[in-house]
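Troubleshooting: if your tokenizer reports a length mismatch, compare your output against this known-good record of 187 residues.
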Amino acid sequence: MKKILLTGLAALSIATSAHASLIDASTPIPDDYVLLNLHGAGLDWVYAGPIGPDERGPGQLHGPTYRAAEGWRVATAAEWAHRPLWTDFIKPGNPAAISVPQDGYDDHRGYLFASEYWSIYTHVDLGDYASGYVTDGVNGAGQIVPETIYVRFSTAVPEAQTYAMLLAGLGMLAGLRRRRTKLTNPQ
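Known-good structure output:
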């Protein structure tokens, strides 16, 4: 009986070690794991994981509604047409030296991805993405084992109030410069 119990515990341990625990949706995804404001288009992209949403059953990889509070959603057709390449997710400086796409990539130091925040996986399969197998559950759907990305309106784009304050500050600086010029060069 003891051997059966120990064998069962060992098997359970081995079976669960291949996957990670999903990080709860109440924990925001760090910006360090997100492609912010891609090409200045006002969109953030997240590489959510190595399979399609619910591809291998519920909870394996969640759809964008799982983190809708952070603004994540599927892309419009126009946004999808300008989705990131797999290389866009390579971090500047890339200490992991990614040059050839590989499967099972799990190094956050060299690549932007957030699979732990969307799924039970801790890796992404760059080779699949590089081969064009990518979806958001709607766009690119129907492919065999695609990678998943989602989009949101960028949090890195300044709000209109920020622009208004910037313009007001520039206006004040221009006014001060004009006044200074009049004082030093009266005519």
